[in-house]
Design goal:
The complex is a heterodimer of chains A (170) and B (429). Chain A is an all-alpha fold and 170 residues long. Helices cover 72% and strands 0% of the residues of chain A. In chain A, helix 1 (2-39) runs antiparallel to helix 2 (48-69), helix 1 packs antiparallel against helix 6 (136-154) and helix 2 runs parallel beside helix 6 (136-154). Chain A is elongated. Chain B has 429 residues and is mainly α. Helices cover 79% and strands 0% of the residues of chain B. Chain B has helices at residues 2-16, 20-35, 39-50, 57-70, 73-86, 93-109, 112-129, 134-144, 147-150, 155-163, 170-176, 178-199, 209-234, 240-259, 267-297, 300-311, 315-332, 335-352, 357-371, 379-388, 392-398, 400-415, 418-426. The chains are: A mainly alpha (170), B mainly alpha (429). Chains A and B meet through helix 1, helix 2, helix 3 and helix 4 of A and helix 1, helix 2, helix 3, helix 4 and helix 7 of B.
Chain lengths: 170, 429
Amino acid sequence: MASAFRRWMDALYLLCVILASASLVLISAVIPWSVYTRYVLNHAASWPEPMAILLTIVLTFFGAAACYRTGIHMRVTVLHYLLPPLGIRAVELAAELLMGLASLFMVIWGEGLVATTWHQVIDAFPFLSVGVTYLPIPLGGVVTLLFVVERLLIGAPADRWAAREPAAPG
Amino acid sequence: MDIVVVLLALLALFALGVPIAYALGLAALVGAWRLGIPPEAVMLQISSGVSKFAMLTIPFFVLAGAIMAEGGMARRLVAFANVLVGLVRLRGGLSAVNIIATTFLSGISGSAVADTSAIGSVMIPQMEKSGYPRVFATNVTITASVQALLVPPSHNAVIYSLATGGTISVIALFMAGVVPGLLLGLALLMLCIALAYRHKHPRGETVPLGVAVKLSIDALWGLITLAIILGGILGGVFTAIEAGAVACVWAFFVTMFIYRDYRWRELPLLIHRTMRTVAMVMTLIAFAASLGYIMALMQVPARVTAFFLTLSHDKSVILLMINAMLLLLGCVMDMAPSILICTPILLPVVTSFGVDPVHFGMIMMLNLGIGLCHPPVGSIIFVGCAVGKVTMEQVMRHIWPFYAVMFVVLMLVTFIPSISLWLPHLLKL
């Protein structure tokens, strides 16, 4: 049961990584395209900017869930140096529960934001609802919540996807 | 009272080890509850926090920097710096090569951690082989990489610009960082030369002309990135965002088609690592926007300004206090969250004392950059120790002269505003 759950979470993590990474690659393609249309085709395309913003939201919230699963979000760990092992475990448990709370907030009020803006359309993409652009918030919240449950029930997974540590933004 | 509750909640969340981004969001919720604001308002701030076009500067510069730092650029810049230093045959020449190569790479990567890892993996073994102590080589690498936090395209300068609500131009910040960054490099260079004479470090060696020309041409491809970023922005060809995007495409082209020492199958891993870095920072920015909103409603900046005024009316005293505060903060918190939390609070304080926001940006970068060079949260020192294969204790025992030099540069940048503002004013930014 535990190993099946872990496999499902691995698959979900992979999906988040693919969505967020694909967004990053696409963002890196659409903005140079707008430069190209402006200078070479002499007709600046209007869609790359809103498209890039939309992709940024996908990248942020699915990427954030993936970062949470691998435990690479920045956090203050000073207390971990001062507490005995049992204290550290208690603190970690409290942190996971609070993360669950934050995820629930994203799910409930993110969904509220999607519902409120569902019938508005984006100027550059009249076929697309504004609500869709905010959809990554509640969806990212759901995924993060599942990762919180995973950590609480069967512990943190090993970060076997990255060969090296990510470059922190320092 | 409301402010105290929010601050206590934030400190408790930090202490418990809740990821900083989510801790900011939860503290904003506590603030909303105290102020009687619906949680929808907090959610709206989070969503608008990432829906800004200016945010795109971050993924582009992080990606371009990662491609350049991992794609063989560091090795070529080291070789180019070696050619330059070889011309004067300096004592302690490889220390100078390390610092100069870092200066070049900083102008491309914008990330101190990337510089430490990329330059350190090339320079530390090379310096040790030439007779330098490994710990010394590691310390040079760690402290020299702080230049990346100052010179364009510093990722943290972009984060600072976003933390000011986009009121301070990224371009002005980029230009403001040039002289402080070079000053730091020069100061570290002087220290290394002094230590080289004291400890009898070997002299640099002249590179034969034919080899020097080949190495310089090889490095030129990467240095063109710098020209794209700065030339494109200052020439009015691109915005900062577009410059970052074009730099990504150029970095990809140079790495995969000119240098060709990065394998295609490694590319997805690089994208994955970059995505995680970018997502981490973007999440922070999104949630920090919600707390910034709550703090503004609670009039925290005005109250903090009033508090500082009760302590002193002297600008120098206030700047010294803020420096001390930021240095202490740098001991316990990473750079990006520190910038995002402190900027909305401290910027109104310093501007009320007549400090230019661009100048304050540089003060903040340098203070928090020093924080990255010491434990317990200094990411540069951790990466430096890992790359240099030395312990934290060894590094800490010998890093003090480097700290002293960085502190002197910090004081110069703090109390001589023209160090930061001369170039932006010259370029009318």
